[in-house]
Design a protein that fits this description.
The structure is a single chain. The protein has 176 residues and is α/β, with parallel strands linked by helices. It is built from five helices and five strands. It is globular.
């Protein structure tokens, strides 16, 4: 099965903000970015099924691309930044942040998730998806979800996943 994963477009939050699972607004350039994404997505042909994160930044792009009623799945949400949600990294006073910076690939944020937590929930979604009779599906989601799916699909290793962060409005494809 081919799984085509689409990252939401640019968000309207200050650079360096931990927005994670917060439902943030999209940038004023949404329509221009979304039109380019829709054009690139058309090259994949038709989809047997379409899924989306329930967060509005992914859902709005799915709808713009012609999928008004995708199946929503909480496992497709971005990494939870916990207590640090909506704080700028530079403004976080938590002394734990130094420890987290040294091992952000493995450590959770306070009351949030670790990257392995996210990889596990995205893998759970993909494991379940493999049992379905689809040939090609679309998934509208977030950078961390696409990184997790890229690991699952063998595009890159866990240690190198963030070196391959899909740009806003970008698309990757995996075979499961």
């Amino acid at each position: 099965m081919e799984v085509v994963l689409i990252r939401h477009t640019s968000v309207d939050v200050p650079r360096g903000t931990c927005y994670g699972q917060t439902d943030v607004p999209l940038a004023a350039t949404f329509e221009q970015e979304a039109a380019r994404t829709r054009e690139r997505l058309a090259r994949y042909g038709t989809f047997d099924h379409v899924f989306s994160s329930p967060l509005s930044r992914a859902l709005k792009l799915a709808r713009f691309c012609g999928y008004p009623h995708p199946t929503l799945d909480n496992r497709l949400k971005e990494l939870s930044m916990g207590d640090w949600e909506m704080q700028r990294y530079d403004d976080i006073k938590d002394p734990y942040i130094d420890e987290w910076y040294k091992d952000y690939l493995h450590l959770p944020t306070p009351n949030g998730e670790s990257f392995p937590d996210q990889v596990a929930r995205v893998s759970s979604f993909l494991d379940e998806l493999k049992s379905q009779p689809y040939r090609r599906v679309a998934v509208f989601a977030h950078g961390g979800v696409l990184a997790s799916a890229g690991i699952y699909g063998g595009l890159y290793s866990f240690a190198r996943a963030w070196d391959h962060l899909t740009p806003y409005g970008g698309i990757i494809s995996i075979t499961i």
